[in-house]
Design brief:
Blueprint lengths: L3 E4 L1 H9 L5 H14 L3 E6 L19 H8 L7 E7 L5 H4 L10 E6 L4 H13 L3 E6 L7 H12 L5 E6 L6 H15 L5 E6 L6 H11 L3 E4 L13 H8 L6 H16 L8 H8 L5 H8 L5 H13 L1
Parallel strand pairs: 1-2, 1-8, 2-3, 3-4, 4-5, 5-6, 6-7, 7-8
Helix pairs in contact: 2-10, 6-7, 7-8, 11-12, 11-13
Length: 314
């Protein structure tokens, strides 16, 4: 299937700065994505305002309809708008409107394996409301292949449009991505469902893993500008567009980096590959310990690895 590029800079990148992006930044990112030929732009999360303090986060943690429309109007373009809804953290029946009343095109449902039943309920609800849907199975590295097969079989019989292979901890190598992509594609064969890839860059393999998945037939490819995302970040937009070439424009993205991303870094907002993220990736662990390690400006990498190995063994 034709590759579709989904920009999730505001959503994954928002985990770095608590979603405090200016309207100018978001409007320029929207325009940049249009000029670059991006297919989908994700604006952030549909988080519950009863669970999360709106004063403690920027507006893209919640993605109110009026806030998105302030940026895109009626979005009279071919680029589609998406948001992410976490299982257990979204009042989806109340906060996700009917599609006819919204400028949003796609709802991406993020779930762990043990919450797949609720993810299926959310998928049913969003599909009935008229949205395209994805289910993003997180922390796949924690599952055996048999466990994963059972989850995928449930999704096969659901109305979901796209199932995402998510390397949450940046722990996979290209040969593992190849095998997993084949598994996802094989189980969904005979349906009209597509497969997506969301890679993290803990081992500097987000780009390699993304193009490996694409070569196997994965068609939804997640990117963020300058790789901005939680911890080590993601497959960078400029890198993937440069690889794909025809049909995409890299220069608008580079200009956006010059004008908008570099000032963020000068303000002290940090993301991207570093040794602590490498170590959590190698040990298949959530990057939270590496993030704390980095924030405390520690450099005892060998001790960090020993601690992570002890956790893995326990």
């Amino acid at each position: 299937m034709k590759q579709k590029i989904l920009d999730c800079t505001l959503r994954d990148g928002g985990l770095v700065n608590r979603f405090y992006f200016t309207d100018e930044f978001v409007k320029k990112l929207y325009q940049t994505n249009l000029e670059a030929g991006i297919d989908y732009m994700e604006f952030g999360y549909k988080a519950s305002e009863e669970q999360f303090d709106r004063d403690a986060f920027g507006k893209w943690k919640f993605c109110r309809e009026e806030d998105i429309r302030e940026i895109v109007g009626e979005n009279p373009t071919s680029m589609k708008i998406s948001v992410m809804a976490d299982v257990g953290r979204t009042d989806y029946k109340k906060d996700i409107l009917n599609r006819k009343d919204s400028v949003i095109d796609m709802v991406r449902i993020a779930t762990y394996g043990n919450t797949i039943e609720e993810a299926l309920e959310m998928t049913e609800d969003c599909s009935e409301k008229g949205y395209e849907t994805t289910v993003n199975i997180m922390a796949v590295s924690n599952h055996t292949e048999k466990e994963l097969e059972k989850i995928l079989e449930k999704l096969k019989d659901s109305p979901v449009n796209t199932v995402y292979l998510v390397d949450s901890y940046g722990s996979f190598y290209p040969e593992q991505i190849r095998r997993l992509a084949d598994l996802y594609l094989g189980i969904m064969k005979g349906t009209e469902k597509e497969i997506g890839i969301h890679a993290h860059n803990n081992q500097q393999l987000a780009f390699a893993n993304t193009i490996e998945a694409m070569r196997r037939g994965v068609s939804f490819l997640d990117v963020t500008v300058n790789g901005m995302g939680r911890g080590a970040g993601n497959c960078s937009t400029e890198q993937l567009l440069g690889y794909l070439g025809d049909g995409f424009q890299e220069i608008p993205v580079l200009k956006f980096i010059e004008e908008q991303m570099l000032p963020l870094k000068r303000q002290g907002i940090l993301w991207g590959y570093d040794i602590p993220y490498l170590l959590t990736g190698q040990e298949k662990q959530h990057p939270s310990s590496a993030i704390a390690f980095m924030q405390e400006q520690k450099t005892q990498y060998s001790q960090l690895l020993k601690n992570l190995q002890a956790l893995s063994a326990s």
